[in-house]
């Protein structure tokens, strides 16, 4: 996952001031040295780092912090706000043309993930906004590109417009837009050609497509793993073509996150979406504020809630919340919950969005596969009704019986019971935190 190193270092640095009732200039200086190093190590553009540190320092030794009741926490808040601002502040929306179709040009270097992203974006437009997109195969140079887009179209059950590789991309774009009008499709996503490097020919072709298709958005698809190179690519494309947004792909494999933190500041192009895997649904709108919170270990509860809302049965969720509140959560509920969570995606990724999750040791190596979940299911299903409600009664002979019934070793049963106990404890604590919420900005 992105930002691992940076998150770790920033959190450690901020930890030192977090609880402080007084933050001196020397504290800030020392802290800013660490922050600077952490950002540079994350491959953030050095000029961006310099400006960032300057802004945070000014605010952190200023009146704003001194007059605060909790200066330590206030400094953390300043860092969070400035990180958010660095990445563009508000989440930027995708354009909607009032004369449909809305045309989006997808541009980028070869291998950045342009074709895949075109499919992902079309998928999101349909799923989230109920739109009807047309995929346009305008990359006539890479032999497999047209085929790849057609395969994606089939997978998504979405129309793909192609005229083969003998017609110019400009002509393809023109006919595609007409086709979308005729068919009442409201988005046209043009998958343009990529090259290994930026070259004149490519830019000229893109300019011609732009001239003709008057796109509402020009999205640059860049590979986050290429770090500062991604920033340079964004700069060139923006200078020559004028971008309206960037899509950062492969953030799942980029542990440093430098590109995400620099692109907006260097090129003034907002990051609109991020790609987090090869699958078509591994794609999210980019929310600067939520990303900043994730980096600082405050979790990303909003994304978590959204994910849950998309997949989890709302009735059940309400019921569960009630049970958590009055601590009547049983192993049966646990099992139920497990299957709901399973639908939301890899458990490790989900847990990472929870505030304070970075403090749970070993989370990064956490691999929960379906087999393990099946084992847990087998264990819980081998318990009696009473045992599931009141696990305290599970003594050693009962444990042996459950082990036999589920075909799992006794140690595994012990471990599960212990985890369940811990979880209940945590929920009680979270219940307490809920009550204290009114006191103001709360950090984990
Ligand atoms: P194009 O040449 O820019 O059109 O690139 P492709 O769409 O063919 O993608 C190149 C490779 O990157 C493919 O193997 C994709 O599956 C992969 N890819 C694209 N986006 C992501 C992403 O967000 N995460 C990961 N891990 N792989 C990605």
Automatic annotation (TrEMBL):
Residues 270-283 form the SRP54-type proteins GTP-binding domain. Its EC number is 3.6.5.4. It is found in: Cytoplasm. PROSITE patterns: SRP54. It is an enzyme of class 3 (hydrolase). Pfam families: SRP54 (PF00448), SRP54_N (PF02881), SRP_SPB (PF02978). One of its GO terms (molecular function) is 7S RNA binding. Keywords: Cytoplasm, GTP-binding, Hydrolase, Nucleotide-binding, Ribonucleoprotein, RNA-binding, Signal recognition particle. It catalyses: GTP + H2O = GDP + phosphate + H(+). GTP binds at residues 108-115, 191-195, 249-252. GO terms for cellular component: signal recognition particle. InterPro entries: AAA+_ATPase, P-loop_NTPase, Signal_recog_part_SRP54_M_sf, Signal_recog_particl_SRP54_hlx, Signal_recog_particle_SRP54_M, SRP, SRP54, SRP54_GTPase_dom. Belongs to the GTP-binding SRP family. SRP54 subfamily. Composed of three domains: the N-terminal N domain, which is responsible for interactions with the ribosome, the central G domain, which binds GTP, and the C-terminal M domain, which binds the RNA and the signal sequence of the RNC. Part of the signal recognition particle protein translocation system, which is composed of SRP and FtsY. Involved in targeting and insertion of nascent membrane proteins into the cytoplasmic membrane. Binds to the hydrophobic signal sequence of the ribosome-nascent chain (RNC) as it emerges from the ribosomes. The SRP-RNC complex is then targeted to the cytoplasmic membrane where it interacts with the SRP receptor FtsY. Interaction with FtsY leads to the transfer of the RNC complex to the Sec translocase for insertion into the membrane, the hydrolysis of GTP by both Ffh and FtsY, and the dissociation of the SRP-FtsY complex into the individual components. PANTHER family: SIGNAL RECOGNITION PARTICLE 54K PROTEIN SRP54, SIGNAL RECOGNITION PARTICLE SUBUNIT SRP54. This is Signal recognition particle protein. It comes from Gottfriedia solisilvae.
